[in-house]
Amino acid sequence: MGQRLNLEEIGRMAGVSRSTVSRVVNGEPNVSNSAAKRVKAAIAETGYRPHAAARSLASNRTGVLGLVIPSAVATLFDDPYFGRLILGASGETNALDATLALFLFEQDNDENSIISRVVNPGLVDGVIVTATTMGDPVIEHLRQANMPFVVVGRPDDGSASYSVDADNRGGAKIAAKHLVSCGRTRIGIITPPSNTTAGLDRRLGFLEGLEEAGIDAGGRIEEGNWTEASGAAALMRLLESGVDGVFAGSDRMAVGALNAIRAAGLRCPEDVALVSFDGLVPAGQTSPQLTSIVQPINEVGQRAARLLKSVIDGEITTSEHVVFPTTLAIAESCGFKAMT
Amino acid sequence: MGQRLNLEEIGRMAGVSRSTVSRVVNGEPNVSNSAAKRVKAAIAETGYRPHAAARSLASNRTGVLGLVIPSAVATLFDDPYFGRLILGASGETNALDATLALFLFEQDNDENSIISRVVNPGLVDGVIVTATTMGDPVIEHLRQANMPFVVVGRPDDGSASYSVDADNRGGAKIAAKHLVSCGRTRIGIITPPSNTTAGLDRRLGFLEGLEEAGIDAGGRIEEGNWTEASGAAALMRLLESGVDGVFAGSDRMAVGALNAIRAAGLRCPEDVALVSFDGLVPAGQTSPQLTSIVQPINEVGQRAARLLKSVIDGEITTSEHVVFPTTLAIAESCGFKAMT
DNA sequence: AGTTAGCTTGGGAGCGCTCTCAGAGGGGGA
DNA sequence: TCCCCCTCTGAGAGCGCTCCCAAGCTAACT
């Protein structure tokens, strides 16, 4: 029984030094073919793998990217949004040969302990933060700790240098105009929470769209909290204003709204047309199938991971804010009839 | 500008040695009050946090638990199962003051690179593996690498020493008996894939339940692949056998089956009663609301994390297989009428 | 007063790697 | 022939921590 399996031991087997083995492992140039061959043979024979912690300590790089999702509990359960985001970030992290660490805030009092864990030196190289609510203290902590970070979503102030977001405002505008083009005139909105930038942007874009179409919202604005129940409740309130078209700011709220329409004895799209946001409800899951503004969540996650990696590697010096376009996917709930 | 912030530097500020600071940081006994006080003051003043990689290297413990989910893509998108599992594991990991690393296999060719990353020394202390398919090579790799692991689900052979699972068999048995008690006689099943232990167990339990009730399945067994589409297709095939009651082996397949029942012009529960498995469909999402066998996924994730931690800490020497009970949650889709 | 035990403290060694530098060896150009 | 440069290699130092041992000190008991 010799040493534990480490660079030195592999070097002994291959008749070279620690340094040469390190060069081979890291794919560096300036290693002779014969030496590289013997080293690779020794590695293959022993199944040697470099020790991640030792590498991190010496190089000051861990190869771990963090994904921070505050206040996840309420939504992660039944909103596929975060699943997709995680999937996108995970895929890109794998492609970068890095590891993804997940930090979910269960409740407020977890926040401090988790933040302090995130900013621990030698644990993660940087983090992706989903800035769901405005004024989130997480970002300030990250900046103070000098930890590289990329925000998913639009940061609420100039505090973040790097962000990846979907075009909430543009998408909401399209939704409003589409409802108009479907012949609706009394159009309302169920907005996401107004303490989120996504909520504000979708509301703003919606109002812009209506205004450009020369239609007044007439106060038909109700706020939900991402859940189906809140979507249903908001729709009930909108019905009192006599709506014939509704833009629901998220799929889950749209599903709730759809159920509420039915529960009220009305038909969708005949009585109330519905346009959703997210594009996460699979075909066939609802009837009528939801017309929705589709945001490329998976790509957002991917891009955020890649951007973070670039920032960590120092490849990016200026700030960068990526906005993915959102697109209209027409299905049944808006009652749209194409001219033929 | 002195040193980088480390134990030595804090020690200098507090007038003690590296060792004493280390003891304070780790909450060890045998430190005088005055020394501890000065050290804590220095830590508070500087915002010092121990370097995770250095600690890992020296102690051979990283404080990171891995969660491995093979073949996640297909299901993670729209099945809340994995979201809940992640949530449960994450919550417990936080409670243990550890960090959760997520390893999702995107596709088969990711598998090798991810496995080798997982077994990297100095990265994670141990892993939770969701053993979705039988004969999965991941477990063998983990064993060879001598990496502590806990399986979520029932391992398909005696290969795992530690596992956490829900009582699939018992739950399926209850489902079958419940359909019988609802007066159904031509009862079929939509099983999860038979290359998963969950699929086998649910099928087995279902058949047992029918047998004990003195009813023959009569070949009304169709296999799905967890998706709604497969559930719908399986139900169509079952209809040809003339079923009046169906046990769907997962919520997503049940939703698909429900849609297929409607599409066939039949009513649920009047024409075909339906019992699901998972208990993940929120009330109001389907009409009729699904009667389901509920498995405590969140608790499974929690328990797996805690068990893994115990294994890593060497607190458990014998093997341990935890099975959580599953319960029947009666709603509308089974057509059950309580005696009053 | 002597002895012992217990508490407290400091320092050495070492975890396995990276990074830098110096030096050996060899080929090509003047 | 000499010199320079390029390629390849090895060794030292150090990353920040934990672990262990020795030593100093105090208190308690004989």
Query: Largest interface, per-chain counts?
Result: A-B, 56 and 57 residues
Could you describe the largest sheet of chain A, including whether it forms a barrel?
A: 6 strands, parallel
How would you spell out the order of helices and strands of chain A? HHHHEHHEHEHEEHEHEHEHEEHEE
- Rg calculated over all Cα atoms of chain A: 25 Å
What does this protein look like?
2 copies of one chain form a homodimer. With 340 residues, chain A is an alpha/beta fold. Chain A is built from 13 helices and 12 strands. Chain A has helices spanning 7-14, 18-25, 33-46, 52-59, 73-76, 80-95, 110-118, 137-144, 168-181, 197-212, 228-240, 251-263, 297-312; strands at 64-69, 99-104, 126-130, 149-152, 162-166, 187-191, 221-223, 245-248, 273-278, 291-294, 320-324, 327-329. In chain A, the strands form 2 sheets. In chain A, strands 2-1-3-4-5-11 form a 6-stranded parallel beta sheet, sandwiched between helices. In chain A, helix 8 links the parallel strand 3 (126-130) and strand 4. The N and C termini of chain A lie far apart (81 Å). Chains A and B meet through helix 4, helix 6, strand 2, helix 7 and helix 11 of A and helix 4, helix 6, strand 2, helix 7 and helix 11 of B. Strand 2 of chain A pairs antiparallel with strand 2 of chain B. Chain A binds a DNA duplex (30 and 30 nucleotides) through helix 1, helix 2 and helix 4.
